[in-house]
Structure formats: C-alpha cells, structure tokens
Write a structure and sequence with these properties.
single chain, mainly alpha, two-stranded antiparallel ribbon, 10 helices, about 5% strand
C-alpha cells in the first residue's frame, strides 16, 4: 500500500534522523544505551507510519508443517526416523525422533536446490549494483534478508512452503525494548546486543534510502518490521 505524499515525506525525514543517531559517536556504556533508546524512539515512529504487512499465511507454524514436509520430500529431501514437532518448552518447532536412530546415522539429506541463497539472477545483481559502497564490506546477511523479503511477497514463489514455517518474530535483541535491554546491564551480552540493534537500524536506513524506490520487488514490502 503506497503512502500519501505527506506520510512518505515524514518517513523519509525519520529515516534521515535514524541514520543521524546511528552514526553518532558513542564510546561509554551510558552513551551507547542512550543511543539505543534514541534509535528505538525513531524506529517506533517509523513503524507507526509504515504499513503493517503480514509475513505469515494466517495459519500457525505447526499447521504448515505437513505442506512444508510434502514440498521438501517432493523436491529431493530425504528424512529417516524424524519429524517436525512443536516443543513449547523451547519456544518453537524442532526435530523429534520417530524410531531408533543408530549412532552416526544420517537422518536428513537436503539437495542443493533446497538451499536458499543469493544467486546471480538479474534481480539480485541489481541489489548489488545499487547497494552503497559503505554497506558492501559485509553484505551477505543483508542481501539474504532482502532476497527472503522478495520471495515472501512474490506471487507463486517456489519457496512459499518453506517461508510459511518461519517464525514471524524471534527471541533476539532486535525485538527488545529499552527496558528489556537494561536487563542485560553488567553482562557480557549487553555490548553485542547494542551493536546488533544499531547495525540493523543503520542497514534498514541505508536500504530504504538507496534501494527501495529503485527495486520493484521491494517497493511495497520493505519495512523495518519485515526486515528485522
């Protein structure tokens, strides 16, 4: 859904503000936490403007397991004595044995055609061409995320059964509030968590500014919520 000119202008201004906060010098823990709070504040305002896009098909992940399994087996995947099951104590889906598994036995074989990776297709090459040089030092995870977004919103994507079993949110610091982040104080996890959130916020800002309007497959589906 396209934004009105007024909302689009407001969003562009917030993206500039986000990048400004993201590249501000922050040396001490207090400065880094303050920077994180500022980034979260701007991102909250961005999320209120951006359209709310659904990344699921409306069914639970467990309900999508059968269609995913059929798709995987039909495309060359082999599985012996295991199944996908829900394990609420671990917060998601996992593998469960359905019979005796001898020590050292291979239980799953996945053909290369079912590896999701960024190929040399023209639409992916265009991403590489448009990506700012500043973002090209470690482009792998960013390009993979953009490729996943393209496929998620692509009509009749080959990868739909796989994408339908992915979670719509994750237990990573990208989903922490500033109060959640404060719980990591005095732990070794705090600095990596702050760094991750800052890097993803800056990536989002760069991608939206330089790529979204020039890549048709991302024009209407690239938002911060979808990207994270």
């Amino acid at each position: 859904m396209a934004l009105s000119k007024g909302k689009a202008k407001e969003l562009n201004g917030l993206v500039e503000e986000l990048l400004k906060h993201g590249f501000k010098e922050a040396n001490t823990i207090d400065e880094q936490q303050a920077q994180h709070r500022n980034l979260c504040g701007v991102l909250d305002r961005i999320r209120r403007i951006e359209p709310k896009l659904r990344t699921t098909n409306g069914h639970t992940r467990l309900e999508n397991v059968d269609s995913f399994t059929q798709w995987a087996l039909a495309n060359g995947c082999q599985a012996q004595n295991v199944r996908i099951a829900e394990h609420t104590e671990y917060g998601g889906l996992g593998l469960e044995s359905t019979g005796f598994i001898p020590d050292g036995e291979c239980v799953i074989t996945v053909p290369r055609k079912l590896f999701f990776y960024v190929t040399g297709e023209p639409r992916y090459r265009k991403l590489l061409e448009l990506m700012p040089a500043a973002m090209m030092s470690e482009p792998g995870n960013m390009l993979l995320a953009l490729a996943l977004i393209m496929e998620r919103f692509r009509t009749k994507s080959f990868w739909k059964p796989y994408l339908d079993i992915l979670p719509d949110r994750y237990t990573t610091p990208l989903f922490y509030t500033p109060d959640d982040m404060a719980e990591l104080a005095d732990t070794e996890a705090l600095l990596p968590a702050l760094k991750l959130c800052k890097n993803i916020a800056r990536q989002y800002g760069f991608v939206r500014k330089f790529v979204q309007d020039q890549v048709e497959d991302l024009r209407d589906c690239f938002t911060y919520d979808v990207y994270r």
